[in-house]
Design a protein that fits this description.
The structure holds two protein chains of two kinds.
Chain A lengths: L4 E3 L2 E4 L5 E6 L6 E7 L6 E7 L2 E5 L6 E5 L5 E5 L8 E8 L9 E2 L3 E5 L1
Parallel strand pairs in A: 2-11
Antiparallel strand pairs in A: 1-3, 3-8, 4-5, 4-9, 5-6, 7-8, 9-10, 9-11
Chain B lengths: L8 E5 L4 E6 L7 E8 L6 E6 L2 E4 L4 E4 L5 E6 L8 E9 L14 E6 L1
Parallel strand pairs in B: 1-9
Antiparallel strand pairs in B: 2-7, 3-4, 3-8, 5-6, 6-7, 8-9
Chain lengths: 114, 113
């Protein structure tokens, strides 16, 4: 049983560009959350998707948007990239309404903005 | 959400027991305490969760005093592979929607040979 998978593993972009990151949840999971982790810091919650809708959002600007597909996979889009967007982007999945100990994280996508 | 405070870093040697303490003075009645482990360039991994007293699994033990204002993660006989960042999180077990996890800075554990 594959866990949470993310693609690509690494990405280099320049300021002002747009980027799309992808996540496939663990089998049986229907809820996907995205986190941003800057170097040396803990992950910060961006938003969560359930039933193809954004259900909860952290303190991130509208440049960060997402989507969830009928198969529960998800995309994170970031527009007008800034140098400060350089980070490890983590996807986490779980079954809705299950406890926090059932949340599984993917390996992340390392985004570098030059 | 209750804020957590934990040491920035700790050093240990192989075979020793490591105890990492987390302070959460404003923990709410329905909050649980959860610890995650993160290796470099990997996502966090759930270690253990508890509400009060003591919880033990195959990886670690979690000690929670009666006032629940702190908790201690105990790793028995650490090895080099336990070198990682350990995060203490406090929040509801299940929420009506979300279950957003709030991470602090974590504790960087370095295990030396």
């Amino acid at each position: 049983d594959a866990g949470v998978t993310q693609s690509p593993t690494h990405l280099i972009k320049t300021r002002g560009q747009q980027v799309t990151l992808r996540c496939s949840p663990k089998s049986g999971h229907d809820t996907v959350s995205w986190y941003q982790q800057a170097l040396g810091q803990g992950p910060q919650f961006i938003f969560q998707y359930y039933e193809e809708e954004e259900r909860q959002r952290g303190n991130f600007p509208d440049r960060f948007s997402g989507h969830q597909f009928p198969n529960y996979s998800s995309e994170l889009n970031v527009n007008a990239l800034l140098l400060g967007d350089s980070a490890l982007y983590l996807c986490a999945s779980r079954r809705d309404r299950e406890s926090t100990d059932t949340q599984y994280f993917g390996p992340g996508t390392r985004l570098t903005v030059l | 959400l209750a804020k957590t405070t934990q040491p920035i870093s700790m050093d240990s040697y192989e075979g020793q027991e490591v105890n990492i303490t987390c302070s959460h003075n404003n923990i709410a009645t329905n909050d649980y305490i959860t610890w995650y482990q993160q290796f470099p360039s990997q996502g966090p991994r759930f270690i253990i969760q508890g509400y009060k007293t003591k919880v033990t699994n195959e990886v670690a033990s979690l000690f929670i005093p009666a006032d629940r204002k702190s908790s201690t993660l105990s790793l028995p006989r650490v090895s080099l592979s336990d070198t990682a960042v350990y995060y203490c999180l406090v929040g509801p077990w299940v929420t009506n929607a979300g279950n957003m996890l709030t991470f602090g800075g974590g504790t960087r554990l370095m295990v030396k040979p």
